[in-house]
Amino acid sequence: MELLKKWLGHPEDIYNLLRFKMGGYRTVMPRIDPVSGTGCDDGAGGGEGMRFAISVDRAVRGARGGARGGGGGGCHLPARLRRCHGHAVCIFYLVLRALDTIEDDMTISLDVKVPMLHEFHSYLYQPEWKYMESKEKDRQVLEDFPTISMEFRNLSKVYQDVISDICRKMGVGMAEFLEKKVDSQHEWDKYCHYVAGLVGIGLSRLFSASELEDPIVGQDTELANSMGLFLQKTNIIRDYLEDQLEGREFWPREVWSRYAKKLSDLAKPENIEMAVQCLNELITNALHHVPDVLTYLSRLKNQSVFNFCAIPQVMAIATLAACYNNKQVFRGVVKIRKGQAVTLMMDATNIQAVKAIMYQYVEEIYQKIPSTDPSSNKTQQIIASIRAMSLPGSPMASRHHYSPIYLSCAMLLAALSWQYLSTISKATEEYVQAGEN
């Protein structure tokens, strides 16, 4: 009955889940065809190695449910990169997943892990290199790394140079933060840059190198970095409790130390009011990246690239709106509804629609700002800036305005088919997870 109530409360989710399941996902998140790539001018067709690499990608994303700071949507990439440019984004994703697996594996001692992170970019050019001692659940990317690196070496040199350079910088940054915690807000930005901002920069350079986008997209590293930081900070904020349970800490000490003696103290019931104030301050910090996100997205010309970049960003703003001033962040997992996620994926196909989505969710945050919150003035100020950039546009004006007849039909549909829709929800899990992460 809980699921039925959920459908009745959000009839638009039903419509978009059905649209998504009936083929809409192919439009918003086109997937790699394992046999595509023939006839490409760079000689990097879709041979056995590429088909195997794609199967690794699917297995890893299925086991992990998406990367916190890795390659995001994996192989949901634009057609030109997919068909005629050596599957560059997919290989970029798999390479970063392998690097991230090394960082995450707590069974690897620091004296082994640090040199591996520093040298990882060089392994791309070593045909036989692999690592068989990982205990991580997605260790397959390390055990089968020769196949991934072979496909990397089949890419055009311009793509190899981008991927290798990003891996080198990311490995050095990961090693730096292995032996220290995130203290200041500056270091929080720096950590997020290493694990996610560099991904945004690398993807942007690939988009420009493929000529899908103008050179400025790859050259403006500040905007590309903000794209990654917004996603990474959202994940870090949302995953407070999960990280605490696994012994990881990513919230900056400079912020949380004003509210508790230890970061773990925020999860104690007696500290919940201070915990929520800390949460709100970090969300306000993350919102400062939204203007850069909108500027970046406004420059994109290719529809597939736009969808690829925009979907995770609208997922992030919806997640922040759900987390803002929400005690549940310290008690469990706060996630947006699957139907809500699919609706966002179906809607975020142009810049005006994305601006309207951003406007909608910052308004939702604004309505929840407590007058006594220490960060309330700063939150209101950044929301005012986002409002100025994202006034509601006509494409989204009627998103939540349905006629009584439509609503009645939707509710009847929900009552008759909620069990079926629950199956649809599971079937779309892979696509939704790719967008959320």
Automatic annotation (TrEMBL):
Catalysed conversion reaction: 2 (2E,6E)-farnesyl diphosphate = presqualene diphosphate + diphosphate; 2 (2E,6E)-farnesyl diphosphate + NADPH + H(+) = squalene + 2 diphosphate + NADP(+); 2 (2E,6E)-farnesyl diphosphate + NADH + H(+) = squalene + 2 diphosphate + NAD(+); presqualene diphosphate + NADPH + H(+) = squalene + diphosphate + NADP(+)
Tree of life domain: Eukaryota
Gene (name only): Fdft1
Cofactor(s) the protein requires to work: Mg(2+)
Protein name from the UniProt record: Squalene synthase
The keyword Chaperone appears for this protein: no
SUPFAM superfamilies associated with the record: Terpenoid synthases
Known EC number: 2.5.1.21
Keyword Transferase set for record: yes
Gene Ontology CC terms: endoplasmic reticulum membrane
